[in-house]
């Protein structure tokens, strides 16, 4: 704890019924986070490639890196096929077509708004 930094909390909400103004210790970066960041750094060095997180700028496209290549189409996932087949069966047995339309949105807007 000798390396902990002091962070003081002063802001008190009007509705706060608990004590504030206490010191919160800062023990630094979690050891698992440090371990993960170190692994990322090691792999970046090994692969000679910097990991690009979403908030990092996207590097310019290099001609050696094709981007307009064909992607294999294995068809619809079996789980989706089963779900669609089950939906057709349910629609048939209930004599009701499932789906979201402009009319169904308007008809149910009040009910859906109450869920928010």
Could you please describe the fold and organization of this structure?
- The chain is mainly alpha-helical.
- Helices cover 40% and strands 7% of the residues.
- The protein has a two-stranded antiparallel ribbon with strand order 1-2.
- 0% of the residues are buried.
- The mean pLDDT is 80.
Chart the SSEs and their pairings.
Layout: E1 5-8, E2 23-26, H1 31-47, H2 78-94, H3 102-113
Antiparallel strand pairs: 1-2
Provide the descriptors you would attach to this structure in a database record.
116 residues, mainly alpha, two-stranded antiparallel sheet, 3 helices
Largest sheet report:
2 strands, antiparallel
Shape: flat
Going by helix content, strand content and strand pairing, the class is: mainly alpha
Terminus-to-terminus distance: 44 Å
Q: Unreliable runs, pLDDT <50, ≥5 residues?
A: none
* Count of DSSP H/I helices: 3
Provide the spatial order of strands within the biggest beta sheet: 1-2
Number of strands: 2
* Rg on CA atoms, Å: 27 Å
DSSP strand content? 5-15%
What's the helical proportion of residues? Answer: 25-40%
Mean pLDDT rating:
80
| Helix/strand order | EEHHH
